[in-house]
């Protein structure tokens, strides 16, 4: 195995990792504390004094966490027993074993950025589960739901487009079908801009009609492997026996508007017969502010179904039916909220890796998935994607992300350097996007 480069970390003053740990993460913690404060009366109504005491305890634990981070204290083991506690603490020991620090302790600014950012969200969850009877509370639920509610017009436009498309789908020739597939892939890409962890939890809803912006946005797609996806799935469709299946897996990112774009794409995959089953992978616990949980998935389908527009509610009713029929299947697995890069999956979560091997195609949405796929390391821009995956090849896969972290591989020689010279923030602003494929051509 070739030597892999060093991890991105907060050691590099001025880097995106540094600014995330210094500014964005404390800002998110402050918002979480504020959210708990605002629900104090609700906790009292539901649980009486016990609820108020629990809220105080959670806030105290989160304030302690914020102080540890801001003063670069050692990273401490998790204490509350949960399904993943031992794995987390083993990983913390492993990180400490790699350090040259005199006290042998992992610290916020000196440990890998991927690890400390995941650890922060896991500690938020620990503070909540240590505070019964409010241990069920999702501190990010409000902002996720607000993101969806503020994107209504865009959601209606997409649902209308999809329903009109489905009416004529059987009359489309192969090229027309391919064009529609590419259109919905791009909508799913630009939907990934709606990321609440990037905005520190502030509103990031979709208020413009993304459908009408696709042509203008095309120059900002730095890597475009959509043709590979079409050729793979259309080939599956042509060679499929009557009773056999084509499974597409979508490893989800954000709830709210982005999830709508993913479900629109998944609906099209079934209607066009490019897939016979779509499997969605979400998070078991609230994660990175806006990541999708089973509650978010079900809530959103319900909201769309009860939307005050006929095509919107038609989509919601169809989606509910797909779930009932097993054509859409939602899964979660604790691995998605561990700090490990994905090349460790065969060892850490062999059951999940075996599951992913059943896919004909896996779509990985968003930045966190990209960071975990590539190990969140200081790769050269032109390193091949296949190499950066470091042995993670369960099935043909494609990453669909708008760039919001200082990592990008697979570019043409000189392309990254050229962008860096003209736009220093090109890889963190969400302005550029990629469809990056790994698999047989």
Major sheet: order of its strands?
A: 1-7-6-5-2-3-4
* CATH arch. level architecture of the largest domain: 3-Layer(aba) Sandwich
Rg for CA atoms? 22 Å
Number of domains: 2
Q: Which parts are unreliable, with pLDDT below 50 for 5 consecutive residues or more?
A: none
Determine the fraction of residues in helical runs and give it as a percent range.
40-55%
How confident is the prediction overall: mean pLDDT? 95
Which structural class matches the secondary elements?
alpha/beta
User: Please, how many helices?
Assistant: 18
Q: How many beta-strand elements?
A: 7
Biggest pleated sheet:
7 strands, mixed
Order of helices and strands: HHHHHHHHHEHEHEHHEHHEHHEHE
Distance linking N and C termini: 24 Å
Backbone shape: globular
Determine and state the CATH class of the largest domain: Alpha Beta
Query: Proportion of β residues?
Result: 5-15%
CATH topology of the largest domain: Rossmann fold
Protein name: Sugar phosphate phosphatase
InterPro entries: ARMT-1-like_metal-bd_sf (IPR036075), ARMT1 (IPR039763), ARMT1-like_metal-bd (IPR002791)
Organism: Macaca fascicularis (Crab-eating macaque)
Catalytic activity: L-glutamyl-[protein] + S-adenosyl-L-methionine = [protein]-L-glutamate 5-O-methyl ester + S-adenosyl-L-homocysteine; beta-D-fructose 6-phosphate = dihydroxyacetone + D-glyceraldehyde 3-phosphate; beta-D-fructose 1-phosphate + H2O = D-fructose + phosphate
């Amino acid at each position: 195995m070739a030597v892999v480069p060093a991890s991105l970390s907060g050691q590099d003053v001025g880097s995106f990792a540094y600014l995330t740990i210094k500014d964005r993460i404390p800002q998110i913690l402050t918002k979480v504390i504020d959210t708990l404060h605002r629900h104090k009366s609700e906790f009292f109504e539901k649980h009486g004094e016990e609820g108020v005491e629990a809220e105080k305890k959670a806030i105290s634990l989160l304030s302690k966490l914020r102080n540890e981070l801001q003063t670069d204290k050692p990273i401490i083991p998790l204490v509350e027993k949960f399904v993943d506690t031992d794995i987390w603490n083993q990983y913390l020991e492993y990180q400490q074993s790699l350090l040259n620090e005199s006290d042998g302790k992992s610290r916020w600014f000196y440990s890998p950025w991927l690890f400390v950012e995941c650890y922060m969200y896991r500690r938020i969850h620990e503070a909540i589960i240590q505070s019964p009877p409010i241990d069920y509370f999702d501190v990010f639920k409000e902002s996720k739901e607000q993101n969806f509610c503020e994107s209504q017009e865009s959601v209606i436009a997409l649902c209308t487009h999809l329903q009109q498309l489905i009416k004529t789908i059987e009359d489309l020739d192969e090229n027309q079908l391919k064009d529609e597939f590419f259109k919905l892939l791009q909508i799913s890409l630009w939907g990934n801009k709606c990321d609440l962890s990037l905005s520190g939890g502030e509103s990031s809803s979709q208020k413009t009609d993304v459908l009408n912006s696709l042509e203008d946005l095309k120059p900002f797609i730095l890597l475009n492997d959509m043709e590979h996806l079409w050729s793979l799935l259309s080939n599956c469709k042509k060679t499929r026996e009557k009773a056999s299946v084509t499974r597409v897996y979508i490893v989800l990112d954000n709830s709210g508007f982005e999830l709508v774009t993913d479900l629109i794409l998944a609906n099209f995959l079934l209607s066009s017969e490019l897939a016979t089953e779509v499997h969605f992978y979400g998070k078991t616990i609230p994660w990175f502010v806006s990541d999708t949980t089973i509650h978010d998935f079900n809530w959103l389908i319900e909201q769309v179904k009860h939307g005050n527009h006929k095509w919107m509610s038609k989509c919601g009713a169809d989606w509910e039916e797909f779930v009932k029929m097993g054509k859409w299947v939602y899964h979660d697995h604790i691995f998605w909220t561990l700090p490990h890069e994905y090349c460790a999956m065969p060892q850490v979560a062999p059951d999940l890796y075996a599951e992913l091997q059943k896919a004909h195609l896996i779509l990985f949405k968003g930045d966190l998935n990209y960071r975990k796929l590539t190990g969140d390391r200081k790769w050269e821009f032109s390193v091949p994607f296949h190499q950066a995956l470091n042995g993670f090849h369960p099935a043909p896969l494609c990453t669909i992300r708008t760039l919001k972290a200082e990592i990008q591989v697979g570019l043409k020689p000189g392309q990254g350097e050229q962008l860096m010279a003209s736009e220093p923030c090109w890889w963190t602003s969400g302005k550029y996007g990629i469809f990056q494929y790994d698999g047989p051509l």
